[in-house]
Amino acid sequence: MQDKSSLPIGVFDSGIGGLTVVHSLLKLLPNENIIYFGDTARVPYGPKSPEAVRGYAKQDAHFLVSQNVKMIVIACNTVSAVALDVVQKESNVPVVGVIVPGAKSAIQSSRKKRIGVIGTKGTIASNAYTNAIRQFDSDAKVFGKACPLFVSLAEEGFINHKATEMIANEYLFSFKQEKIDTLVLGCTHYPILSEVIQKSVSEEVTLIDSGIAVAEEVKQLLEEKELQNRSKHKPNILFYVSDVPEKFTEVGERFLGMKMGKVRRAEGFLI
Amino acid sequence: MQDKSSLPIGVFDSGIGGLTVVHSLLKLLPNENIIYFGDTARVPYGPKSPEAVRGYAKQDAHFLVSQNVKMIVIACNTVSAVALDVVQKESNVPVVGVIVPGAKSAIQSSRKKRIGVIGTKGTIASNAYTNAIRQFDSDAKVFGKACPLFVSLAEEGFINHKATEMIANEYLFSFKQEKIDTLVLGCTHYPILSEVIQKSVSEEVTLIDSGIAVAEEVKQLLEEKELQNRSKHKPNILFYVSDVPEKFTEVGERFLGMKMGKVRRAEGFLI
C-alpha cells in the first residue's frame, strides 16, 4: 500500500472564510502539507439553496480529490450543514466537517447547557448545529440566529467598527434573555469579528471557534489512521480559487493571519 | 415579417437588484410584457472578475434569447460595465445597458460637471461610467467610489438604519470635498438606500437612478423601432431565477415595489 502520510490535507470553502480554519490547522499541525480551494466564482454559499450548495460542494470535492489529498476538511459551515454526505460520496478519503467538532466543543464548554449558534441563513435554517449538539446532550437548549451581514463586514474590513458593533448588538441581543453561556461561531468568517461579538454578548460567554475544534479533530483522525506527515521537508501550503486569483491575497492574508504566497487558478470552474 | 411588438422585453441581473429597473419600466411602459431573469445561483457579480461576469452574462443572455424576447435590458451595472459586448454578441435583438443612459442623465443634470459615481468594485474598477460621461462631455470631472456593503445592507433590509447611515457617511464623505452636484447610483441595489445616500451627500446633490434613465431609453428605442406593444391584453410579467425560487419573493417585492406573483426556476443553471 502506498504511504499516504506525506500527501496534503485538502481544505475547501465557498471563498475566503475557510482560511481561518487553515490558520488553526497550521498552528496545530505545522508539519502537514495543505491544499486550499476557495470557490470564489460562486461565493457566497450562505444565502443559496441547499440544492445549489450541494451541486457546488460536489465539484469542490472533486477538485480536491483530483489533487490527490489524504483527507478533506470542509472549512465551510453551510456545506458541512447541508452537503456533508455529498462530499463523502464524492471522496475516497476521510472527510471532516465543521459542525460536529464545533458542537462537541460547545457541549464540553457549556455548564448551563444553554448554547447560542450564529451562522449564515443556510446553516441556521438547516438546524445542523442544534441536531449535532443534541446528539451529545439531548437536554441542551440551543438558540440559533442568522447573522448574514457579518460575512461582508468581515470581508470589507469593518472589524472594530462602530457600525459593526451596532449590527452585532442588534443580531445578538436576544442571547442575553436566553442566558446562553456558550456561543458557536458557526461561520468561518466570524472569528475575524470575535472581539466585537464577545463584547456584544458579554465577557462571560465562551466563544467556540469551530476552526480550532476542527483542527483538533483532524489531528486525532491523522493519529488514529497513522496519516501524520513525518517528512522533514518544509510543508507546502497551496492556494487555489475558482475565479481569477488577483484580489484574493489581500483579504486572504487578513483571514489567514500570515503571508500567502502565490494563489493559483483552479481550471474548469469558469464558463 | 413577424410582428414582434407583443413579445416581452427581457431584463436580467445577477439577482434581485434589477427589480428596481423593472419597477421603472412598469411605471413608464405599463403596456409591455416583461420577462425578468435573476442569476441567484451565482449572485453577486460585483466582487467577481470581469472574466467570470462575462461568462455568466453570456448564459443569462442566452436564457432570455431562448424566451423569444424583442429586446434585452441589462439591469445590472457590473454586467453593463464589463460584458455589454458579450450580451450583444449573444443576442439577435437590441440590447440596452444601464451605463450609457445613466451617464447621459447625469451629464444633463449636472451644472458644474462634477459628477460622483458609486457602484460595486467591478463597476468602479472598470471606469465605465467615467468613460461614458466623458463621451458626452470630455471636460466633466468624474469621481468614482465603490460601496460594496450597500448591496447586503439593502438586501437585509437595513434601509433607514443608523449603521447604514454611518457606513454611508464613511463611503461618501469625500464627495463633499470634491464638490459634486450629481451622484450616479451605479448599482441597481442602491435606489433602495436613496434616502440615506441623499442625506449623506446633502440635499443639493441630484441622485441619478439609472433604472429611470434606462426606462426612458427603452421607451425611445421601442418608438424608433416601432416595437411598442399595442395589444389590449393585460401584460404578463414573468420572473425567473437560476437558484430555487423560494425566498426570492420576500426581498424581491421590496425592490419591485409591488406584488410579484409566481417566481419560476430557469432550468440548466444548477449543476
Question: Overview of this structure, please?
Answer:
- Two copies of one chain form a homodimer.
- The first copy, chain A, has 271 residues and is of the alpha/beta class.
- Chain A folds into two domains: 143 residues, Rossmann fold, CATH 3.40.50; 112 residues, 3-Layer(aba) Sandwich (Rossmann fold).
- In chain A, 44% of the residues lie in helices and 16% in strands.
- Chain A has 13 helices and ten strands.
- Chain A has a six-stranded parallel sheet with strand order 4-3-1-2-9-10.
- In chain A, helix 1 crosses helix 13.
- The longest helix of chain A is centred in the first third of the chain and has 17 residues.
- Chain A is globular.
- The model of chain A has no long low-confidence stretch (mean pLDDT 95).
- Chains A and B meet through helix 2, helix 8 and helix 9 of A and helix 2, helix 7 and helix 8 of B.
Task: Spell out the blueprint of helices and strands.
The structure is a homodimer.
Chain A: E1 9-13, H1 19-28, E2 34-38, H2 50-66, E3 71-74, H3 77-82, H4 84-90, E4 95-96, H5 99-109, E5 114-119, H6 121-126, H7 128-136, E6 141-146, H8 149-155, H9 162-172, H10 174-177, E7 182-185, H11 194-201, E8 206-209, H12 210-224, E9 237-241, H13 248-256, E10 263-265
Parallel strand pairs in A: 1-2, 1-3, 2-9, 3-4, 5-6, 5-7, 7-8, 9-10
